[in-house]
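User: As part of a screening pipeline, I want to sanity-check one entry by hand. Below is the sequence and the SMILES for calcium ion. Please return the complex as structure tokens so I can compare it with the automated output.
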Amino acid sequence: MKTNITLSAHSIRVSKITNALACASALSLSSLALAHGDHDHDVNDVEITVTTLAEGLVHPWGMAFLPNGDLLVTERAGGIRRLSKDGKLSGRLENVPEVVAQNQGGMLDIAIDPNFATNNTIYFCYSKASEDEDKPGSSSSVAKATLSHKGLEDVKVIFSADSIVDNGFHFGCRLTFDAEQALYVAMGDRYKYMKEAQNTNNHFGKIVRINADGSVPKSNPFTTGDAPEVFSYGHRNVQGITIHPETGAVWAMEHGPKGGDEINILENGANYGWPSITYGIDYSGEIISDKTHMDGMKQPWVYWDPSIAPSGLTFYQGEMFNEWNGDVLVGSLKFTHLRRIDVENGQAGEQFEYLRENQARIRDVEVGPDGAIYLLTDAPNGKILKLTK
Ligand SMILES: [Ca+2]
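Assistant: Here is the complex for your manual check:
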């Protein structure tokens, strides 16, 4: 597809509003926690130019920058494409495995090996068909492959979740490497199997930690159990995971049911509560748990009620939006905005919404090597957007 769309034809200039209005509209953490229907704000404290870098992607889901500035992008329907630094979008790369593209499943997140510059290795997470005749369905799997000019080589599955279920919901599948080059993979609770999120002997509702070859790090917390890959548990459906740029901690963001989306700071072996504690209720209105706190279960760093359906999580780092350094960026599917959480002394401060009038569901957020912010929009004709100042 031809790209390099000119800025003038496809850019949206977001009007700057006064500081007074920005302050009046900004949601504080406390008001967020209490107030319902409080998402009518469209707060812009800076002038942002939005450029469409590419379109025509089928539900783009995850992206990762290569060291040379090219961007790899997945399409949930199945496939990985490459947006070159000069704006050319490739067709689907060759030799990408088949996915089960059903509901929320398909080709999901993608990550680059920490040593990509020397090994050209990438990782991706997808819904993979069960190979067990007695257990039909699919589960989240991670494969690694060598990236060549045209496609993938030496594709190898390094992890397959045991949460094989015949539905298309709650795959998790976000990926990130930490500084020790361990790979964290989010595993959803597969929707109707929520109670399994409290069982550390399986992969439902977990974050797993594996080495780059799929082996289990010795310091994992449940190595004597049936699911030694588990790092933390009690998760629902993690849709964002990233490393804090200063502390090195893993931060993960998950969808609650009706209410109760959260960001958590992960600790080895910790229980994040789902579904024993939650700030949400079932979609039907039924109570899942009447508790928000229990001993031995972690509280979220922040939560949203009502839900914003967050997707894609990163910390801003760069020169371009210098005043946002260290702040949390998340996409919102439901309210079609980019959200920034001001971080002060490690705590969640004011929250700001951008681009809501663009009316595009935001599936993923990354900061490029140039300090610009890149977004994927979730649609049959999905786009890669670039935000600059
Ligand atoms: Ca929780």
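Points to compare against the pipeline: Residues 262, 272-274, 300 surround calcium ion (CB under 6 Å). The first strand starts at residue 12 and ends at 13.
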